[in-house]
Design goal:
Arc Repressor Mutant, subunit A, Endonuclease, Chain A, 11 helices, 10 strands, 56% helix
Amino acid sequence: MILKNDLVAKIKDYFELNIYETKVWLALLGKGSASAGEIASISGVPRSRTYDVLESLEKKGFALIKLGKPVKYLGVKPRMILEKMKNNVRTESEEKLQILLNIKETAEFSQLEELYTVGINPVKREDLSASIKGRSTISSHLSEIIESAKEEVIVCTNFKEMKIKEKLFIETVSLLKKKGVKVKVALSGNPELIKKLSETMKIKITPVEVDAKFFIVDRQEILFYLNRESTKEDQAIWLNSDFFSEAFADLFEIATRNENEKSR
């Protein structure tokens, strides 16, 4: 059995194995059951290393030792490996999430919060502005400022983006309404699709021709995206400015008012 280099390279990355482990596992899958000598011959892995590699694969759950003599090995079914890896990732994620949640209750975290709010040289409100890069970082920052809203949140984006985040946005709107915060939404895109989305989400959405993505909180903070389509390399500007936020909010009001008048 000839193992193709591109297959070995991809399987190695997919399943987080080294080159020798990948070649031996593929050899086992192709042979069914085999002795260490047969595996060395099929995989091209030096016989002196084959035993160590088989032991490593057994520990990781990729290989089994067949009962009986002579000693032979079995390759574990790929689907079983994938399910095991998924469960491991899920368990690790839950454990890490719990650790992060517990950090908030520690004295050290309280000191971090105090350093940020007080500090040696407290940050002036008018100095709170920044360029933010990366989808995850932007989303975290956006969630933070939206959750702090007391009176109003203005959203201007496109239908595609809103549709992707529909469930999350419905939950966010529900929480804001419970706090008595007004939510105003305008989307660019197909008016008929926007109308259906508005009915599904049970919130008024105004179709607009403004091709922009920005969020305004209490007419004090604004976060606007610099790229049209969402990617991992998203970039945004966050400004804590009454003047700038109020100006954008006024433009938003004019655009939505004009569109509402057209639809009458």
